[in-house]
Amino acid sequence: MRVLIKGAGVVGLALAHELSGHGVEVAVAERQADFGGAASWFAGGMLAPWCERESAEEVVLTRGIGAIDWWDRALPGEVSRNGTLVVAPARDAGELKRFASRTSGFEWLDAEAIARLEPALAGRFREALFFPGEAHLDPRRALVLLRQKLVERGVSFVGETDGDSGHDMIADCSGASRIGTVAGLRGVRGEMLYLQTGEVELSRPVRLIHPRIPLYIVPRGDGLFMCGATMIETDDGGPITARSLMELLNAAYTLHPAFGEARLIETGTGVRPAFADNLPRVMRAGNTVTLNGLYRHGFLLSPALAEEAADLALARNLKGDAA
Ligand SMILES: Cc1cc2nc3c(=O)[nH]c(=O)nc-3n(C[C@H](O)[C@H](O)[C@H](O)COP(=O)(O)OP(=O)(O)OC[C@H]3O[C@@H](n4cnc5c(N)ncnc54)[C@H](O)[C@@H]3O)c2cc1C
Fold this sequence. Notes:
By secondary structure, the chain is an alpha/beta fold. It has helices spanning 10-21, 49-52, 58-64, 67-74, 93-101, 111-117, 139-153, 242-255, 298-319; strands at 2-6, 25-29, 46-47, 84-87, 107-110, 127-131, 135-136, 156-158, 169-172, 186-196, 206-208, 215-221, 224-228, 263-274, 281-285, 288-292.
């Protein structure tokens, strides 16, 4: 069986991994020379199914839980299983309680326990929620390493192609570029930045609850921190706005004033592809399967989506179904 995957973002690569692992001959067509056009490049890399339940359907939790093991198996040693810490300034204590009421899988921490877990935050917050089962990875490393692994497995990477050149199945994994051609698909702009400082050390993603500007900071090692992310209803992928930059920096400063002295290494924008219910879809029409709508959950839900699409492809192959 031969499958052509269009798009080398996280879901395209996850599907290539699933299919090639089952002996399928896979080619991946990517229109960009690097990952810079992919929303996946700008992600936080949080594998946070319990925290995401705060604003997402239960299915994001149930389908997302397996992602941590999936990434560990696919890229051994790349997943940090240190949990997630959620904090709020004293004036937003009510927001933290609301977050707790909408989630599960956490324990309450007092100021001393916060200081034991993240010494850099000692004395800054009175209480926090700790989600011990969550994990994170560096999405940029993960994308590069996954692609390398696929090449070693014999998966070929080619430029953009219109033709299907005799493939048994086409998998369209081209993300937000399909807005306007896939019914109901919209863009949710996410702006982020990288800060670097030797003054703060964190071991896990920290989410700062705020009624207007929620922030998360994901440590990348060597004093580098990814800070994100805005959620703006538009498919405009242009540079970060001054307002978003100010708000993200303000929130980082609230988490720890040392971020005020940090170097601003990079700003970026990714457009999250999303359907109205913010849940992803695997959609089949003829010999084309479309995987899209990963929204805020590309790294969290790609494994489940890729497994679903691979099952579809393999079942179809067994039946010799040419529909
Ligand atoms: C700031 C930000 C933070 C995020 N944080 C997280 C997080 O912490 N955890 C998490 O799970 N998710 C996170 N997400 C969500 C996640 O990044 C997205 O859900 C995911 O990247 C979508 O992946 P995708 O493969 O569908 O699309 P993309 O990553 O956009 O990939 C699509 C690819 O298709 C290519 N392409 C387009 N058209 C064609 C064509 N015709 N032919 C060939 N190639 C084509 C594009 O160049 C691109 O490389 C975040 C997103 C943003 C923006």
